[in-house]
Design a protein that fits this description.
Number of strands: 2
Strand content: 5-15%
Strand order of the largest sheet: 1-2
Largest sheet: 2 strands, antiparallel
Distance between the termini: 10 Å
Number of domains: 2
Helix content: 25-40%
Length: about 100
């Protein structure tokens, strides 16, 4: 591909400026994970607290990481030919 032919290194270290936050998983996410793990969920309407107890009993994560904010990218910066070539699929991403 073009990047090998011209000796262009397209990989660049980018520092993230986004913030991470921990949130509780929803009832639906907990039920899906419990069932996907091969366990059964008791019949009837369960409260969120009950599902959290069941999930933690089976070692299933009850919180998820959510990224907030903007990571450093092309906000306020002009694109270079390298980024345009990447977006058009002209770079060999296998090497």
């Amino acid at each position: 591909m073009l990047c090998r032919e011209h000796g262009i290194s397209w990989r660049k270290e980018v520092k993230s400026v986004s913030k991470q936050d921990e949130k509780d998983r929803t009832r639906a996410e907990l039920i899906c994970d419990i069932l996907a793990d091969g366990h059964e969920v008791p019949k009837g309407r369960l409260r969120h607290e009950d599902l959290v107890k069941i999930a933690s009993k089976y070692g299933i994560a009850t919180k998820k990481t959510v990224h907030k904010g903007v990571t450093e990218c092309w906000v306020g910066k002009p694109k270079g030919m390298l980024q345009i070539a990447y977006e058009r699929g002209l770079l060999d991403l296998e090497s």
